[in-house]
């Protein structure tokens, strides 16, 4: 019950933040008010699990995005699904002022969020076991801007599950390759 309440509060905050950013964006930022869709693939801390990640975000400012992150890990006997409300912050390291084109296109970021972790285990004798718990995550990554709309990158996520899911209290995931489209 408490997890649903936290999730509803976060969704409401996301909606209010998006509406507020649209009505008060006088900063002149080129990314503010834009949406982005990100997809990636990689692996989790379980080497047999293939990871896919999907992210739908809204830029409140050039350096701040809020959105939904979905991590899906599929293996022979385990499937994990982790939807979270996520924030992404792009710190200004002065890279945009560099004379090097490669450095100017690089955008490192920090991200974190709250959500749920769901495990589906396939047990012997055709039995299944499912468990869902509260999740907090944080991570780092980088995008390389190819043009105004497209970027490629990588993203690492450290998923902390306080109550544990089938004994797992921590799941590391790394989307080795991501592709992002901003519109």
Tell me what the structure shows.
- This protein has a single domain (2-182), classed as Porin (Beta Barrel).
- The chain is built from two helices and eight strands.
- An eight-stranded antiparallel beta barrel has the order 1-2-3-4-5-6-7-8.
- Strand 7 and strand 8 (168-182) form a beta hairpin.
- Helices cover 15% and strands 62% of the residues.
- Residues 1-29 have low confidence and may be disordered.
- It is elongated, with a radius of gyration of 18 Å.
- The chain has 183 residues and is an alpha+beta fold.
- The longest helix is centred in the first third of the chain and has 23 residues, at 2-24.
Blueprint of the fold:
Elements: H1 2-24, E1 35-44, E2 50-61, E3 64-74, E4 78-89, H2 101-105, E5 106-123, E6 127-145, E7 150-165, E8 168-182
Antiparallel strand pairs: 1-2, 1-8, 2-3, 3-4, 4-5, 5-6, 6-7, 7-8
Task: List the main descriptive attributes of the protein structure presented here.
8 strands, 2 helices, Porin, 62% strand, 15% helix, 183 residues
């Amino acid at each position: 019950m408490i997890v649903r309440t936290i999730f509803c509060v976060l969704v409401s905050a996301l909606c209010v933040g998006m509406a507020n950013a649209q009505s008060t964006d006088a900063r002149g930022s080129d990314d503010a008010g834009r949406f982005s869709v990100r997809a990636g693939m990689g692996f989790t801390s379980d080497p047999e699990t293939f990871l896919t990640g999907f992210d739908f975000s809204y830029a409140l400012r050039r350096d701040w995005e809020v959105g939904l992150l979905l991590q899906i890990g599929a293996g022979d006997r385990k499937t994990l699904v982790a939807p979270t409300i996520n924030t992404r912050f792009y710190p200004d390291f002065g890279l945009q002022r560099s004379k090097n084109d490669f450095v100017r296109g690089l955008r490192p970021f920090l991200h974190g969020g709250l959500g749920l972790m769901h495990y589906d285990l396939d047990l012997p004798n055709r039995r299944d076991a499912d468990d869902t718990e509260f999740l907090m995550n944080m991570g780092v990554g980088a995008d390389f801007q190819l043009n105004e709309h497209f970027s490629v990158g990588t993203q690492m996520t450290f998923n902390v599950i306080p109550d544990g899911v089938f004994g797992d209290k921590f799941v590391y995931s790394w989307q080795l390759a991501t592709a992002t489209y901003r519109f």
